[in-house]
Design a protein that fits this description.
There is one protein chain. Helix content is 74%, strand content 2%. With 349 residues, the protein is mainly alpha-helical. The chain folds into two domains: 111 residues, Four Helix Bundle (Hemerythrin (Met), subunit A); 191 residues, no CATH class.
Length: 349
């Protein structure tokens, strides 16, 4: 004879299992919804950062935090982590590594908050990039202070003392880094632009920002004007050296901003072959190379890695994307393509 109490326990256990399964499914759906695109996601972010970030995101949304507040919190942890890289003390350095990684997780979370709560803005995207650069500025400054006056041995016969000129190396690497980040962000945004049907939320063209600046009404907030000026300068540097891409976008604008399915497929098909290079120029590779070199006391080689290896990858990425834009121009808009072979990949930082 069945015991009613046992039946009740079984029913309750089944309800608990179903509730747990529902929560797990909701968690998976939230992670998926929080991503821009699986094609532009760094695999390390997907499998390591995102599952942690989404839990923080859920908490931030419950607390009614804005994406910009999360972005600024990542700045606090990022700068604190950079400061911990200055002393040559492994425990302190490891703390710095942990803080910088947590800042990166918060950097994932702010975008998730924006997408899940539908509170993203162009200013938020701009602030996110500015904070990323500020965190790296702090890292470069800390490393410069750490290396200034140190004796570096590149080999048994090549030893020299670093002095004030370490700052030349720091500034050069920082300029390369800044250019790499801007270009990677630009082409990643273009991938999303074509993937999502001419959705212009992923990047801003300088001509559009220039028009917004000119159309600002009298009495507008000076901060709004300053933001547009800075964003205009940033977008202008992104577009430099991308002449074929700019011509392609101009042709799309002349067509009413409509991207045909065939054109989009052509661009995305080529972009998929190189899109992960944009992630290589992002946070994970360069930062974990730095952490590894720090542990061995060879952080000076990080600057060479940034200036030589990553800079080479940047130009290879640009060449591929500009070649793709040139081919699409020649195929879809032959009368306005110009000399694609001459323009592909041309330009400076």
């Amino acid at each position: 004879m069945n015991n009613p109490q046992n039946k009740e326990k079984l029913i309750n256990l089944q309800e608990v299992r179903e509730a747990a399964a529902a929560r797990a499914q909701k968690f998976k759906e939230d992670i998926q919804a929080s991503r821009k695109s699986s094609e532009t996601d760094d695999p390390f972010d997907v499998f390591v950062y995102d599952p942690i970030a989404i839990r923080l995101t859920t908490l931030f949304i419950k607390m009614k935090w804005t994406p910009n507040a999360v972005t600024l919190l990542s700045l606090v942890f990022g700068v604190a982590g950079a400061v911990c890289l200055y002393p040559k003390k492994v425990p302190v350095n490891l703390l710095g590594v942990a803080l910088i990684i947590f800042a990166a997780i918060l950097d994932c979370s702010d975008g998730q908050v924006a997408r899940l709560s539908h509170t993203g803005t162009p200013f938020g995207r701009f602030l996110d990039g500015a904070v990323d650069m500020a965190n790296y500025l702090a890292i470069y400054f800390a490393l410069g202070c750490r290396l200034a006056g140190e004796t570096v041995s590149l080999s048994e016969t090549l030893t020299f003392e670093l002095s004030w000129y370490i700052w030349i190396v720091v500034v050069l690497a920082l300029l390369c880094h800044s250019s790499q980040a801007r270009k990677a962000d630009y082409y990643r945004g273009l991938h999303l632009y074509f993937l999502n049907g001419s959705n212009n939320n992923y990047f801003a063209r300088s001509k559009d920002l220039r028009r917004q600046l000119a159309e600002l009404p009298e009495g507008s907030s000076p901060f709004r004007r300053l933001y547009l000026v800075i964003y205009l300068l940033y977008s202008g540097t992104q577009e430099r050296g991308a002449r074929q891409t700019q011509r392609l976008l101009d042709k799309i604008d002349e067509n009413g901003g409509v991207i045909s399915e065939w054109l989009a497929e052509c661009y995305i098909d080529q972009s998929r072959k190189v899109i992960q290079v944009t992630n290589t120029l992002g946070f994970n590779l360069r930062t974990y190379i730095l952490f590894l070199l720090l542990l061995f006391g060879k952080e000076i080689f990080w600057f060479l890695f940034v200036c030589i290896v990553l800079e080479g990858l940047k130009y290879a990425m640009m060449l591929r994307y500009e070649t793709t834009a040139g081919r699409i121009l020649a195929e879809f808009f032959p009368e306005g393509s110009g000399n694609a072979a001459d323009e592909n990949g041309g330009g400076n930082n």
